[in-house]
UniProtKB/TrEMBL annotation:
GO MF: oxidoreductase activity
A Pfam short name: FMN_red
Superkingdom of origin: Bacteria
Keywords per UniProt: Flavoprotein, FMN, Oxidoreductase
PANTHER family: FMN REDUCTASE (NADPH) (PTHR43408)
Ranges of residues in domain NADPH-dependent FMN reductase-like: 1-149
Species of the source: Streptomyces broussonetiae
Signal peptide stretch: none
Descriptive protein name: Oxidoreductase
Length: 191
């Protein structure tokens, strides 16, 4: 099975990436079959995302990330919280994704922040975004505030969410990227 982790952390090291790695490792432990993990660092795609938003065409790295997401059996998406919501870069990545790429795909939502006051970001921002994209969002989302690291409650939430995602991944609807029809063939079909 293929698991793609979309991490929108901006710093190195990043608590967002740390949470993403812990979630991915838990899914690998919980899965009934081997799980190959691919990590997409949105920070590394920022320029190509901006170009795609303005010209409509993804660069090579962005196209590879889009294909990985479309072909995954499951996704883990993790964002830092900015102004009580997901980061703009995180949202922009999903804005340039094919609108059908996440249909029926199991997704585990997670976020990191400096305080527990932002924990509702999972329910008021992330869950609606992925419901709109017609993904299957697992019931347990994982939020990690600064004080949660090393706490038993975080480890329990990680394991529960990972178990839910691992159970859904074998049932995933896998979609490959859109088929590209050469322009000459499109013209010929019109005649």
């Amino acid at each position: 099975m293929r698991l793609v982790v979309v991490s929108a952390g901006l710093s190195v090291p990043s608590s967002t990436r740390l949470l993403a790695d812990r979630l991915a490792a838990a899914v690998q432990r919980q899965a009934s079959a081997p799980v190959d993990v691919e990590v997409v660092e949105v920070r590394d795609l920022a320029v190509e995302i901006a170009h795609n938003l303005t010209n409509g065409f993804p660069g090579k790295k962005l196209a590879a990330a889009q294909d990985a997401v479309a072909g995954a059996d499951g996704l883990i998406v993790v964002t830092p919280v900015f102004s009580a919501s997901y980061s703009g870069l995180f949202k922009s990545f999903f804005d340039v994704l094919d609108k059908e790429a996440l249909v029926g795909k199991p997704v585990l939502i997670a976020a990191t922040g400096g305080t527990g006051r932002h924990s509702l970001v999972l329910e008021h921002a992330l869950r609606p975004l992925f419901a709109y994209l017609r993904a299957v969002v697992v019931p347990t989302g994982v939020y990690a505030a600064s004080e949660d690291w090393g706490a038993e409650g975080l480890a329990e939430r990680i394991e529960r969410a990972a178990q839910e995602l691992a159970a859904l991944m074998p049932l995933a609807v896998r979609r490959e990227g859109p088929a590209v029809v050469p322009f000459a063939d499109q013209l010929a079909a019109l005649q």
